[in-house]
Amino acid sequence: MPYNRETAGKGGHSDFIRNPDVQKFLGDCKYLREPTDAEAKELAAHFMPAPKSQVANLPRYVVASDASKSDTPISDKLPSTQIGFLKVSHVLVDMEKYANLTDPSNRFVDPFKVADMHRSASPVTFVMPGSNIRYCGIDNVRDGFRRALFDQLCIDRSESQSGQVLARMLVAINGENLTLSANPCCGIKPGTTFDKKSLIKSCDCGAEVYVTDFLRLHEGISDFGDNASAMTRMMNAVEHLLLAGFITQVFEAQPEALSGIAFILDGPLGIFGEPAKLSQRLQSLIHKVNMRLAEMHLQPMLVMGLQKTGALMDHALLLKRFLPDGVLRIVDDEYRNKFITGGSSPAANFGNETYYGQDFLFKTESGRIFNFAIPYPFKDKTFGGGGVAFAKAKVQMSRYGTLVERACDLIRHFEMDLYDNSLVPVALAHRHASISLVPGGKMLDLLVRSGLGANKSQS
Ligand SMILES: [Zn+2]
Known about the structure:
Helix content: 25-40%
Structural class: alpha+beta
Shape: globular
Distance between the termini: 50 Å
Largest sheet: 9 strands, mixed
Number of domains: 2
Bound molecules: zinc ion
Strand order of the largest sheet: 1-13-14-15-12-11-2-3-6
Strand content: 15-25%
Number of strands: 17
Radius of gyration: 23 Å
């Protein structure tokens, strides 16, 4: 059912809401509500002037990513026999090359430069079995899905065939090895342990187990249901896994280069559902990189999640007219519980299992509103014993160093009306993600070819 206000029929939607049963039900619910004018003014007073570097502190390169998916019948005559198709697109922006992307007097975007940037986009595609499809002769859809996931994440997409495949990355970001909490075949606990050399093993029960079972995506698969939600989880997990892959590979080759790269993801810095455990790995990887960069007296790598939809953005849009231009607020749990999630027994730390980044609301000097996230500057979530102590520590602005002002600088640099309150690189990645006929997957090769790290690092 469409929930989007634009696409849902206006009449149908309000009729449905006016239904007395629905009204009674809503009376029993708590949900995001519109703040009163007085509340909104009070909320607005707690925003601070948005930080700004003296001279915009911009990265040398921007890598923006976006993902799309579709579940498609293999033919019109077989509507319930489907494959899942998933695509993650990355756009690389060389900030020196595109220094004059826009005309500052009117924010006009040079279409030739945009077209050129588009050519440096690189999609990675994954094809998965959906309902009614058995992969590789495996006798049920779920196990076929597991095998397909393993095969898809073992494809080496680099020009150099370096063997740095996503399945191995899963082990790498976990340390030397990775143990399944339980094996999917017979449920034995703890499950199989994998290392970087053995990504596929036999369980004692005789069945094959894969390192990619760690993601637990198959738990959303059944022989007769559709696989749409598993594909959504997979899309989310794979986009972040690819990010981890880029970071790890550049970190091993030229750690100093990461100081000059900003990664922008379209969506929250969080991994949801079965693969949520991955979010902790992302947080600690990014923290490790930034600790190393600090030792090298370099500024930290900027990773930013940009969210255009969701409850926080709905709230921000309600508040927008009360906010002066050029203000920022870090979204603490108390604020979120009171005005956004409407929970009466909030968790000790919002998003404890799923999020690895902190949300900020930012109204730019030109009046556009953004919800961005920056990774928590901690190795894990155990600070002060975790829970409430972590929830307090994660909203102390000083812990983020210059990252908040750099995120704001980057948003200011790329914001424009033309792209519907999006940033240019994200809009390009988004557009690219919806094109399905381009093969590829050579983002790292593009980065290397563009002279990554050959330039002087910013300090
Ligand atoms: Zn087993």
